[in-house]
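Input sequence (257 aa), recorded before submission:
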Amino acid sequence: MKLAFREFGQGPALIILHGLFGQSDNWNTHAKNFADRGFNVFTIDLRNHGLSPHSDIWNYDVMADDLKEFIDDHHLTKPIILGHSMGAKTAMFFELKYEGIASKLIIADMSPGTATRHHDGVLKALNAVDFSKIENRKEAEAVLNEYIPDFGTKQFLLKNIYWKEEGNKQMSWRFNLEVISRKYDCILEAVPHGTSPVDTLVLRGEKSNYVTEKDFADFEKRFPNHTIQTIAGAGHWVHAEKPKEFFDAVISFLEKK
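Predicted structure, token format:
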């Protein structure tokens, strides 16, 4: 699948993979900052997200294949791969399936193990938004208010609303909500057993439960050449909640000899 992407800067290739319900432009600020430090940054829309094609086939195996196709199409040599949440697990699947392509791996708040269901409330809220009856974002937000108390989460989701066609007054979600709802369990899957020597940084939020001490052994088995760093005061959205600390940790890892 040919994935939509944004490109910034010149230098060694750095690919950034967003999480569930995200899109490439969520990472614009970080991408520009990495580009200013001498990297050629690609922020990608994973399948069924952003401007990339929708497909009924949606799991980590095919998303890893999509990433391999992207790297081949752009003739990228030894890219660095940074992923958050679903994007991080995609990066781990990719590394164990296509070992030796990436030069470094950065895992932002996601464990290799089987994940627990974190998004049932969000899925219920999104499916409650009936675009045949809603004419603007404010009305969509009012529906989400009934299910989601957190302001940041609502604004993150609302960024995905767009007008389906020029002149068409019906809105829709950019992500493929029908497939994501139906195949959500596919992204709870554990990373396959295997081992890669790739240099790996794991960044976890202090307040997040996505990576706990119970997961440390899984990282050791699959990515023995790894470092785990906790970002104080951050939750799951570690890159958004503590952007400076996140950026500094990544740059330190990338620039170390």
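Checked by second reader. The longest strand covers residues 199-205.
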